């Protein structure tokens, strides 16, 4: 039993890769799909299973600089941020109000955010 308790208590090294093959480009190219994910994250709409998983892991990923993200999750996050910052600043603003009301992460990731501005 001690072995089981240690296994449960030990944090996972990465988030699940169950959703790593989601077509991020398809979501970003579809206003309907993108708005659905954003509404899920904002608590304004229903969540798909992968949207629910994202909603649950996003605060931890922000707080810990995505250290538990897989490589695909990191590259997908970069792509989504680049798209939102450059092409959908309205949605970016809504998400930052919800997930970063005190501008903690905006300040922490300022250089990264500034680097993607204008590079859609």
UniProtKB/TrEMBL annotation:
Coiled-coil stretches: none
SUPFAM superfamilies reported in the protein's UniProt record: Chemosensory protein Csp2
Annotated Gene3D superfamilies: Insect odorant-binding protein A10/Ejaculatory bulb-specific protein 3
PANTHER family, alphabetized: CHEMOSENSORY PROTEIN-RELATED, EJACULATORY BULB-SPECIFIC PROTEIN 3-RELATED
Name under which the protein is recorded: Chemosensory protein 14 variant
Source species of the chain: Bombyx mori
Record lineage: Eukaryota, Metazoa, Ecdysozoa, Arthropoda, Hexapoda
